[in-house]
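Hi, here's the filled form for the chain we discussed.

Project: internal
Contact: R.S.
Residues: 185
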Amino acid sequence: MSSSTSTVSVCQPDVAAFTIEVGQIGGYTDPVALTVSGVPTGGVANFSATPITPAGTSTLTISNTAAITPGTYTLTVSGNSTTGVKTTDVILVVSNGNPTVVTQLTPTNGASGISAPTTFTWTTAPEPGVTYEIDIASDAGFSTIIDQATGLSSATYVSSATLSSTTSGILSPSLSAINPFFVRK
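And the returned structure, exactly as it came back:
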């Protein structure tokens, strides 16, 4: 037994869905009853099918995520059949929207005389599943972006951007913490 979606991240109130796969060895076809433990308080778990006959799949959904305290949870899916119990763990990450604003630590905003490479650091956002993006400009108005990065998983970025001889040598970064699961279409 396994899951092709071992980690699912959702933003409240979206529904999380895990695909649970029950394999078959030889001609084994006894039904496998699925259960899940570790569902966070407030969440509602349902399987699209249980029991299932090997080889088969079932979708585990976790709904009512608005009632779940944001965080990272390990759920254990158990498959019980005439040959015993098999388990697999899946990870549920629940976020609640816009993460905490981050603050630049080094170098100071508007610092001059900075040479490449430059290591930028900032405070971390405590929410689960957060990534960071940074835009670095050679001017305070951000009309000349000289480096940028998205999808950063840690609160540090090394920029090898070089300032041209016509700029004043000021690096102004714009930082933000991003919860990619909060974006609605």
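Let me know if anything looks off before we file it.
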